[in-house]
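Objective 1.3, modelling of assemblies. Example input:
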Amino acid sequence: MRETDRSGRPIPTSVLSLGVPPLVTAHAHAAPAAHSGGHEEHHHYTTTGLDNRKIAIWAFIGSECMLFASLISTYLIYKGRSLVGPFPHTEWTNPQTGQVFKPILNIPVTSFSTFVLLMSSLAMVLALAAVQNKDNPLPANAGLGDRMLASSKLWLWATCILGAMFLACQAYEFTSFVHEGLTIKTNLFGSTFFTLTGFHGAHVTAGVIWLGTLLAIDYKRGLGPKDALNVDLAALYWHFVDVIWIAIFTLLYLIPD
Amino acid sequence: MAHDSAHASHEHEHPTWKTYKWVALWLTLITIVEVWAYYIPSFVASAAFVPSLLFMSAVKFVIVVMFYMHLKYDHKLFRALFTGPLIIAVATLLALMMLFRKFAD
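Predicted structure (tokens):
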């Protein structure tokens, strides 16, 4: 007789032979709709009771931690070891031309972009909360603030715009660095700086595109509680991009050589 | 079924707008203090500068992960999936720094 899981579905023999719990094998469960209302919902629950997509995004975020740790390590190892300027925090005079290069990092601009990214995280959690609470009707005396909090479109737009603003700040920073004589080939600082912040910028770009797709879905058919997990996955990715920037901002911009 | 109900309850234990507002306020305040500290030459030259900046950065990191990423309210498996690789990542970073004698500078 074949062994079955909690819901009576047969457990694959490959899993039984390994003697391991089928953590993510029950991916095709079509559980009854958790949030009823006529929607047929397909949750991908595992034997842990958790959705495998959420397990996957956390595993992905864990792997991304190691990617960024390797990039940050490289930056820190080479920090202060550039033979020629421009340097991040100190002035440098080119001995051949006599040209003076000021410290290249623009802390006010980066502080502003850090604030922008932190606020985008706030907008993202509010977007998620708005999607989760969509089925809860607003009270008759709801004010403008309550209506704003209930609007997923507003907060998704806010997150996208703030993410785009962060990218604009980064584009401005990169362009000004190149004009001031720092490229990815100039010195060790340029190589490690552009690689690390460029990778982070690429992640932010991917996040903005992801949020854009959610916004498009929201306009097309409206996001509701049944979509909360999809928004949650995007939110987790977005907050991860934010926490990585928190580390980068301190280690690259604020701590001198 | 028990797992399903546990899952559902986890999804509904998220903080409210007030909590999010306070988290955003604290994150902004800590960022202001960090940048303000950067512009005090005597503090930058002191031995307390780098540890205090690292501490403030770590606090911001933890606040975002616990409240915005809901790790404080979510299942412990997610916590393990995040903190496990994070510990490995930080340990690797420190090992590489020691290997390249960055702490000896």
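Chain A touches chain B through 57 residues (CB under 8 Å).
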